[in-house]
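Ticket #4471: complex job returned nothing on first submit. Input attached below:
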Amino acid sequence: MAPPVQSSRSPSPSPSQPSGKSEVSDLKLQLRNLAGSRAPGTDDSKRELFKKVISYMTIGVDVSSLFSEMVMCSATSDVVLKKMCYLYVGNYARGNPDLALLTINFLQKDCRDEDPMIRGLALRSLCTLRVANLVEYLVGPLGSGLKDSSGYVRMVASIGVLKLYHISAAVCIDSDFPSMLKALFLNDTDAQVVANCLSSLQEIWTLEASTSEEAVREKEALLSKPVIYHLLNRIKAFSEWAQCLVLDLASKYVPSDSNEIFDIMNLLEDRLQHANGAVVLATIKVFLHLTLSMNDVHQQVYERMKAPLLTLVSTGSPEQSYAVLSHLHLLVMRAPILFSSDYKHFYCQYNEPSYVKKLKLEMLTAVANESNTYEIVTELCEYAANVDVPIARESIRAVGKIALQQYDVNAIVDRLLQFLEMEKDYVTAETLVLVKDLLRKYPQWSHDCIAVVGNISSKNVQEPKAKAALIWMLGEYSQDMLDAPYILESLVDNWDDEHSAEVRLHLLTAVLKCFFRRPPETQKALGAALAAGLADSHQDVHDRALFYYRLLQYDVSLAERVVDPPKQAVSVFADTQSSEIKDRIFDEFNSLSILYQKPSYMFTDKEHRGPFEFTEELGSLSVGEESADNVIQSRRFEASDNDLLLSTTEKEENKVPSNNGSAYSAPDYDVSSASLVAMPGHSESAVLNTNLPTHAPQSSSGIDDLLGLGLPATISSPPPLKLNAKPVLDPGTFQRKWGQLPISLSQEDTLSPHGTAALTTPQVLLRHMQSHSIQCIASGGQAPNFKFFFFAQKADDTAAFFLVECLINTSSAKAQIKIKADDGSASAAFSALLRSALSELGMS
Amino acid sequence: MISQFFVLSQRGDNIVFRDYRGEVQKGSAEIFFRKVKFWKGDEGEDAPPVFNADGVNYVHVKVAGLLFVATTRVNVSPSLVLELLQRIARVIKDYLGVLNEDSLRKNFVLVYELLDEVIDFGYPQTTSTEVLKSYIFNEPIEVEAARLPPLGPAAMFMQGTKRMPGTAVTKSVVANEPGGRKREEIFVDIIEKISVTFSSSGYILTSEIDGTIQMKSYLTGNPEIRLALNEDLIIGRNGSSVYDYRNSAGAGAVILDDCNFHESVHLDNFDLDRTLMLVPTDGEFSVMNYRMTQEFKPPFRVNALIEEAGSLKAEVILKIRADFAPSITANTISVHMPLPKYTTRVSFEFEPGAIVGGSETYSAGKAHIFTGVTCQYHERSWTCEHDLHNSNVQCFKASGKVLANSKEIQDIQSIPSTNAKGSLSGIQMASQNTYDSKPM
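Support reply: We reran it on our side without changes. The output follows.
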């Protein structure tokens, strides 16, 4: 008998589906009749009824009114019935806590059943009730469940603890369940029990870490060498899903020396041949993170993972290959050269979904170099004529991007110009935008381009971006295009038909430029344009017209210098994503961040960042800042979208204010960072060092030698500013000051590879800075990202403190420094001191 | 950590809905369906398999016309969730025999039972059909295998998945034969997807084979199985360029670029004699996936010619030539040709003399098909030639090139009774060899 599933999903009443009300009361009656019956065949009829109830539940009809009848009918030995009943109870108990009490009795009884299956099932259902006032009934069965002789029950119980924690954290901790889990985790023979304990412990400790120091220690203990080795050595005993869990944990482990790194990699080597993409990606993450500080090995890892990734891309469903391809895309973007000979793998197949094709186009663009450009551009040109219009557009853009990143653009320009001859609206539109960009970078091509562009009738170009590009070229190269003034004039005549403000703005500027070069022919058009602009309803257009008008009135030659100065070719186009963001994404390898191409803080809520950001050393310190950054970053994206063309210097300028502008929310010391942040207080610098928790061992003194720290005399001219050698500042004051003071200096520096290589743990830099009278108040992070808060005090003025935030990324060898000072006038001198101190570590 | 799991029909109905963590609001299925249906991308692009809406991440795969969806608020590994969804679909299929909307609706209680064991509080537990057997008490209500899709086995490639087994294998792993005797059978399919791009002048531009060895076991007692591959099989191209055909070591040897194996495969003897040892678990799985770019002879050659016949009309002449032994038969050949959106009318005729049977079956050899396609357009500017000469010709072949003497030995004896059903389909061509072996 088919379940009576209605096609309408809406639970609300509709004529075709009379709200299920009468059916529900009908069911209620039938259930009641069966509840006490012991006649043979009762179970079968119950099954049918239960099925109906569950199918209503699935389509969204509220059947919670049947709760008591369902419970009454649940006294049965039929497992199938029991399971359906559990499912029902689990779904509605939360909304009906009073009724849920009815189920406790039979669930508790089932928890003591002889059959481990029943025990496990009952325990699982008991834990999924999610009713806070029933927690007391949970503790007993859970405790015995963890000690059960059956692996199945222990498996259920170990996840059950986590469910209990989510209902009532206090009860869970007070009943000492976490330590029982820990014992199971280390000793249980059943691999799935171990895996479930690990999941539960990770989640519990991470959530607890904000309030309890012990939790932080426990969380770190999961990453200790014995635990990791214990898990990795028996990795094959785990199911593929549990393997992913273990590998994820291992990716956060910091080995003490390179031998250990190679041991782990050799041990996990065969995981790369696994058919499950999730296992392979988790393994790759371990490899990548282990070798971050070893450049040559890191590169070998890239080479090694190429083949397995390509195999995963070509097997499996399109969805699976999309996930793998996104990761491959990330690696290609980081090291295009390593993939330049594999470009044919990135050719699109006609039946691939567009999300796969887009990724492939980007990869083709990235790997293009002198040796393969010809083939790649030829292939892309084929796509440009594709019937799939969005992909055709993307392909044209890709050709343009390749042109902008190549030295030899000869052939590409010809191809682009051929696109214009295809006489397809969207092809022409995309091409015009590209030709404009191309001309800004390679003005020497203007003659060839203008000859072709001049033949395009502006009537055939409708898309605003393309039209704006065409108009820009008409203005910029009006001396080379015979009829430029007349085309512009006709455009001005149709001013009112032009709906895009962007186009009208470009038109104003273009007419003015044309006027400077060919005044007699353009004068009329200019007058008309200014008049139309002044009457325009769009504020920007109006303002620009007025501005031009007054500027011309004031001085024509000045106007020319303002509007049409000689231009320099653009050397580099701004990157849409900062390197910092890219590194963050890379750190979150094998997560959704890769698919969305943004770091996790941009799309997850704070409370759900939990276990997967296991090593956010900085705890709340960095979280507070992230939310501020978030806004800034997104604004920056928009800004760079709007104006793709920025010269390098402009780009640099753009970067700094955005850093400056980030409203830094005060670091919150009281919470999770408590134990992570060393509190120097009145202590000596040496104490500070040992206080700092770290997974990595203390750096060897060899590194100090390597850095040449024994030779502080390398500063040629020490700045006059004198710092107190042993300043005192408690974290609370630091925090308050940081919140109050404005940023007096913000800068970005490049680290020398020498210093980068040495910086494997924060301690190296801390000790070094102390020798320069700059104290660290908080530090954290793991390769490649480190974050430090320093402070220093003027020797002659005890009220004048300098506060520093320093972000160092060792993989990109960049350091971002923000300085705040009580005495702003001295901040420049302090900055010089700080930089010279840093330079000894390897700053240039 | 998965928050919810649900299966939607093509119309967006909830067939199965399971909430594991209660973190995501109840209406998520409708939100998801609306998003997928009206994906904002210009000109009807597909929604990506993973997207975020209001802090909720929706991950989905399409299997047999159904949408398998998981939601989560956590930054999970997308591969893990996608693999898991795919695996859930396969486990359900193992139990139901046939996976479609009808069978799912009839067996939704069984599916709930499975889901309870596969995921607990959002953490994947086990997806092994065999392990799950001891937890599952519902019996499947069998559904008639739906009428075969017009392309038969090749249809799966159209959807891009290779997970579908031979059409004969539509039996639940838990169902017994009417006589109470279990079927002692194992099915081994070798499925290859061949992608070849021909230039307009008929030269091969790119060629690649993606292959997989699929197994579906109904054997009792978990016997060990050995699968012998070509002994001269070479894996990896030793760093030489993947497309450097000349450089292949040793003539005649089959060189795989890369391959991966199922969890249950032991590779202890693989380096010695290229033998895979495994104890097949119940249900369907792929023993090995492989990929090769070594030069090979494509089973079909495709030639396209475009002529403008009038201002709003173009004529495409497509030649497809089969290039394989006469003993092999190609079934259900289908040719796909993407056309511009503004195409108004298409007519189509076979060249006289072309071997086209009504049954769409034709024997290979020196056979030719000449196909003339006439298209009419509103606009003049059609550049079909690019589409065509670049149309990726995808074929699947099981010529045994890679796994020429693949045989499976069970309990040392029992020679497989080969029941080869080669099916080749024109540009989309699939073929599978099914070996049924009855143990002593």
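Chain B is about 15% helix and 35% strand. Closing as resolved unless it happens again.
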